[in-house]
């Protein structure tokens, strides 16, 4: 109700627009009868927040269940995963880096707390720090 860039204004614009797209994915990309996949060459790490409006945690749990040996990393905040990169989530960064380094998955049922729940405050702090650092170096 307060932002002209998000919330209902985005839903009101994108909903009707996207629903009118006449697109059909190629046959190879259609998921009709999902089966358990137990032969991936590396374990998959699924990452999701507890309140993602686009990809709910229930969907991440479902996919995690379809890939035995996969991992599920949850962060305790709203929003899709990419917003966590604008937040200070030390716990998640640690598990992501370990996974990318050697494929190690986090322990089962790992939920990370967000160090700064508001991504814009974290971004402003980082931006301010960067500006101060730049001025000091001049």
Automatic annotation (TrEMBL):
<dbReference type="Pfam" id="PF08386">
    <property type="entry name" value="Abhydrolase_4"/>
</dbReference>
<protein>
    <recommendedName>
        <fullName>Peptidase S33 tripeptidyl aminopeptidase-like C-terminal domain-containing protein</fullName>
    </recommendedName>
</protein>
<dbReference type="InterPro" id="IPR029058">
    <property type="entry name" value="AB_hydrolase_fold"/>
</dbReference>
<dbReference type="InterPro" id="IPR013595">
    <property type="entry name" value="Pept_S33_TAP-like_C"/>
</dbReference>
<feature type="domain" description="Peptidase S33 tripeptidyl aminopeptidase-like C-terminal">
    <location>
        <begin position="18"/>
        <end position="112"/>
    </location>
</feature>
């Amino acid at each position: 109700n307060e932002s002209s860039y998000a919330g209902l204004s985005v839903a009101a614009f994108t909903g009707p627009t996207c629903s009118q797209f006449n697109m059909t994915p190629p046959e190879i990309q259609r998921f009709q009868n999902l089966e358990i996949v137990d032969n991936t060459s590396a374990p998959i790490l699924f990452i999701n927040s507890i309140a993602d409006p686009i990809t709910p945690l229930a969907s991440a749990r479902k996919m995690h269940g379809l890939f035995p040996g996969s991992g599920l990393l949850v962060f305790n905040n709203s929003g899709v995963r990419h917003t966590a990169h604008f937040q200070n989530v030390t716990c998640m960064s640690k598990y992501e880096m370990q996974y990318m380094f050697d494929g190690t998955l986090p322990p089962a049922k790992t939920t990370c707390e967000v160090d700064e729940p508001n991504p814009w405050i974290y971004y402003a702090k980082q931006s301010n720090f960067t500006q101060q650092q730049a001025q000091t170096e001049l």
